[in-house]
Design goal:
The complex is a heterodimer. Chain A has helices spanning 9-17, 34-45, 94-99, 105-125, 145-157, 175-181, 198-210; strands at residues 21-27, 64-73, 76-84, 131-137, 161-166, 187-189. Chain A is α/β, with parallel strands linked by helices. Chain A is globular and about 55 Å long. The two termini of chain B are 13 Å apart. The chains are: A alpha/beta, B alpha+beta.
């Protein structure tokens, strides 16, 4: 056993220069693949999953979290509490659930009510996280107000943001559009569904979320 | 469609008026006006914290048959100077358009233009 026992040089350096444990929120508008990505991360690093996924928006209506997910990158690693948050939206119309997704009126109204509560919960979680994995749909226009609002809020708090340009398995995806729209943040193209480029995401997560930053509170 | 349905109020709100209001008063003013069916053009936009507060307030105000939320789009952002950053100022959109989501629909937005449609009678009534 060496001078420092079981403590490696990498972990000593990480203790001095960066975080070892971070609470990371997965954020984004509804239906961009937040829970699919959370499931991918958990499946790859813990063998577990976070929750169910659906084509119907606002499937995740309560924040779910998993503690102590250890993501490794060579000699360094980061222990994360992963929080899968409900989709953030500026409007919720129960009629969309009926007309587009064929839900009954009662079911649609209940889902809409729960969705509004979920949005509020997501916003409240912003107070309590160390970094954000912001999921965007790379087949859609990135300049949505929800994306811009979440990013503005995180920048004002000085929280590290990593943008996951999801759904690159789809033909019409354009991760380059996201990169040019938000050049101030790292953008990692990924398919949460197939796992394509997940390794690149994990490498960037460890390096980006390990950095020490002073959080601004409101 | 009745004559009343075809009339949509567009209110331009000056920077001076907005500066007179606290964040809380600003949000209350916006939600009250938007719930009445008015579309507001703010000469100077909301801070990122005010924007998330507005979303939170909006979610609390949603009523299935009368108010389904807001459509909100801001044009560009003033980047704070180094001194402003030190003093805690953050980015702030310049012109911001806010209206009831059942009336106002964003078609396209980029750094230079916001294209919207006003659809009387659309969505919850």
């Amino acid at each position: 056993m060496g001078l420092f026992g079981k403590i490696s040089l990498a972990s000593i350096l990480q203790r001095i220069f960066g975080k070892k444990h971070a609470k990371i929120g997965i954020y984004g508008p509804p239906n961009v693949g937040k829970t699919t990505l959370a499931n991918r991360i958990l499946r790859d690093w813990t063998g577990d999953i976070m929750g169910s996924v659906s084509e119907i928006p606002h499937e995740t209506r309560r924040a779910k979290w998993k503690r102590n997910v250890k993501v490794e990158n060579g000699s360094s690693s980061l222990l994360m509490d992963i929080v899968d948050t409900p989709g953030v939206a500026t409007k919720v119309d129960f009629k969309d659930f009926m007309n587009t997704w064929g839900l009954s009126k009662d079911e649609a109204m209940r889902r809409a009510k729960e969705a509004t509560e979920g949005v509020i919960e997501s916003i409240k979680w912003l107070e309590d996280i160390d970094g954000v994995l912001l999921v965007m749909d790379s087949t859609q226009d990135p300049f949505t107000q929800v994306n811009v609002t979440i990013l503005g809020n995180l920048e004002a708090r000085n929280l590290p943001v990593l943008i996951a340009a999801n759904k690159i398995d789809m033909e019409e995806s354009s991760p380059a559009t996201l990169k040019s729209a938000f050049p101030q943040h790292p953008v990692i193209p990924i398919s949460a569904l197939t796992g394509y480029n997940a390794d690149n995401l994990y490498t960037t997560m460890v390096s980006h979320f390990s950095k020490k930053r002073k959080k601004n509170r409101r | 469609m009745t004559k009343k349905d075809t009339e949509i109020s567009f209110n331009l709100v000056s920077r001076n008026k907005l500066d007179e209001l606290s964040s809380q008063e600003k949000l209350q003013f916006i939600i009250k006006e938007v719930k009445k069916g008015k579309i507001l053009v703010l000469e100077y936009g909301l801070t990122p914290f005010e924007q998330t507060n507005l979303i939170e307030h909006t979610m609390k105000e949603i009523e299935h048959d009368t108010f389904i939320g807001v459509e909100m789009e801001g044009l560009g952002q003033d980047r704070p100077s180094f001194i402003q950053k030190l003093l805690g100022f953050s980015k702030k959109p310049r012109v911001t358009l806010i209206g009831p989501a059942n009336l106002l629909k964003t078609i396209r937005k980029d750094n230079d233009m916001i294209q919207t449609k006003i659809i009387p009678g659309r969505g919850a009534k």
